Amino acid sequence: MTWKQWAASKRLKPGDGRELQRFRWWQLPLRSLFWLRLSGAGGQFRLHAVDVRHWARLDNSRIRAHLFLDGRHVAESKLPAVFPVDGGVIEVAMSNYGVRRCHYRPSGGQPRQLTPDPASAEGRRARFGARHPDLSRAIGIGSVLLLVIGVGLNLLQLAEPVSQIPPVAQRVGTFESPMHLPIWLNLVLGVGAVLAGMERALRLRYSSLLDAAGH
């Protein structure tokens, strides 16, 4: 067992058997729900659901993921979570603005993303992408550009004051940023980066370099 697997097992707790609640429209900004159908040991199919309440922060602001089997609560875990299921595990992780990973990793083979509930924000975004692939692709490209521009400009502006710190200046010299943006434009870029991060989270897209730096 790897250290990550051991740590994940310590976060895992048994469920209480309660019934899975249907997704309501007013839960759109607060909840994510994903589905996975797997063949069990006897050959019958079992329906798994992963329920994440984004802002139900417990235990030092740690969000929990809940695993349901055939509609009943069987396990819960603080994130990042690893739930053992038939033939592999379900991995769940969060970014600052949503679920960044909810995948089934079989013991042998490639991981695959769970299916978002049609009523959830992730499910609505997936349906929009299926109905309007070209527009969806353009929005995705725009999200990446907003993050790249925001991160790049922030780094340029941050480099100047950092380079003026005496120990840094002595070692590498000072740097004068070629760009000094007005406050309002920095605010606009900041809002754009937040919206871009949220849009990417709805598609479970995450880059440790791009998304983490943008937030």
Describe this structure in words.
With about 220 residues, the chain is of the alpha+beta class. The chain is built from six helices and ten strands, in the order αββββββββββααααα. The protein has helices spanning about 5-10, 120-130, 135-165, 165-170, 185-200, 210-215, and strands at about 10-15, 30-40, 45-55, 65-70, 70-80, 80-85, 90-95, 100-105, 110-115, 115. The model has no long low-confidence stretch (mean pLDDT about 85).
Major sheet: size, sense and barrel closure? 6 strands, antiparallel
Distance between the termini: 33 Å
Radius of gyration: 21 Å
Major sheet strand order = 1-5-4-3-2-10
What is the approximate shape? elongated
Helix fraction bin: 25-40%
- Proportion in β-strands: 25-35%
- How many beta-strand segments? 10
Keywords:
about 40% helix; four-stranded antiparallel β-sheet; 6 helices; 10 strands; about 220 residues; six-stranded antiparallel β-sheet; alpha+beta
Strand-helix topology:
Layout: H1 3-11, E1 12-14, E2 31-39, E3 45-53, E4 64-69, E5 72-78, E6 81-85, E7 88-95, E8 98-106, E9 112-113, E10 115-116, H2 121-131, H3 133-163, H4 166-172, H5 183-202, H6 210-214
Antiparallel strand pairs: 1-5, 2-3, 2-10, 3-4, 4-5, 6-7, 7-8, 8-9
Helix pairs in contact: 2-3, 3-5
Quickly describe the structure.
The chain is of the alpha+beta class. Helix content is 39%, strand content 28%.
